[in-house]
Amino acid sequence: MNVIRAVGRLWLVPVTLVVWEVATRAAEQPFFPPPSATLARMGEMWLSGPPAHLLLTEQAMDDFGPSLARLFAGWALAAVLGVAAGIAIGCSPRLSGYLDPLIHLGRAVPPPLLVPFFLALLKLSTPAQLTTIVFGIIWPILLNTIDGTRTVDRQHLETARIFGFSTAQRLTRVIVPAAMPKIFAGLRLALSLALILLIIAEILAGSGGLGYRLLTAQRTYLYTDMWGCLVVLGLLGYLLNSAFLLMERRVLAWHRNARQTT
C-alpha cells in the first residue's frame, strides 16, 4: 500500500521530464539542453567508471568526496556547538539575557558576505568553507534548542527534583528528551541550509567539489555539465532530507507514541 502511494505521488516526475524534453528540443537553445542529454552527460562524467569502484569515475570522487565531507563535517560541528550552547542558554536565564542580543545580531548577518573575511583570516579554502557553513547553519539549531529547553514542562522538572535527580540526571532524562522534537526540527533545517552554503562557499572559495565544478562549467559554457550539477544537487537535497526524516521518525517514535496515548 505504501509503495502504491509513493508511486502515486511520483507521477508528476515523468510527466515533467517529457514536457521538459519536448520543450527544450523545440526551442533548440544551447542554454537549456534536453534532459536526455543532461542525463547522458551525467552518466559520462560520474557513472562510467570500473565496476570495482561501483561505476564511479575519478571525476565523481573529486566532485562528491570533498563536497560531502565538508557538508557533513560542517553540519556535525554546528550540531554539537548549537545543541550544547542552546541547552546552556535555555537553562540559564542570566546567560540568555547576556547572549540574546549577540545571537540576534549574528543570525542577521548573511553568511556568504563573510566568505572573503574567512578567507583572509583562515587562508586555506577548506577551513574557510567549513566556517561559512557552521556560521550559517548554527542559528536554527541554536534557537530551536533554546526554545525546546525553555518549554520543558515544569511539572516534569518538579517531579525530577522531588525524586532527587541530580542536575546531570535532570538534563539527560528530562530536559534533553523533552527538547528533542525542536532540536531535530533545527537540525533538519540546518541540513538543507548546509547544502546551499556548501555550494556558495565552494563557488566563492573553492578549488574542488560540486560547487567548483558548477562554476567551471558555467565559465567554460558547458551548459550540459552545469545542468547535470544542478540536477545532482536537487537529488542530493531530496535524499538528505528523506534520510533525515526516516532517522527522525525512528528516534522520536517514543514521542509520537506518548502524544497518542495522552
TrEMBL record:
Keyword S-adenosyl-L-methionine present in the record's keywords: the answer is no
Q: How does it sit in the membrane?
A: Multi-pass membrane protein
Q: What highest taxon heads this organism's lineage?
A: Bacteria
> Does the keyword NAD belong to this entry?
no
The transmembrane segments are 71-90, 128-146, 183-205, 225-247
Q: What's a single GO CC term here?
A: plasma membrane
Where is the protein localized? Cell membrane
Give the main localization category: membrane
Q: Which positions fall inside the ABC transmembrane type-1 domain?
A: 64-248
* Alphabetized PROSITE patterns for the sequence: ABC_TM1
Do you know which Pfam families this protein is assigned to? BPD_transp_1
What is one GO biological process annotated to this record? transmembrane transport
What family does the entry list? Belongs to the binding-protein-dependent transport system permease family.
Q: What is this protein called?
A: ABC-type nitrate/sulfonate/bicarbonate transport system, permease component
According to the entry, what is the taxonomic lineage of the organism?
Bacteria, Bacillati, Actinomycetota, Actinomycetes, Streptosporangiales
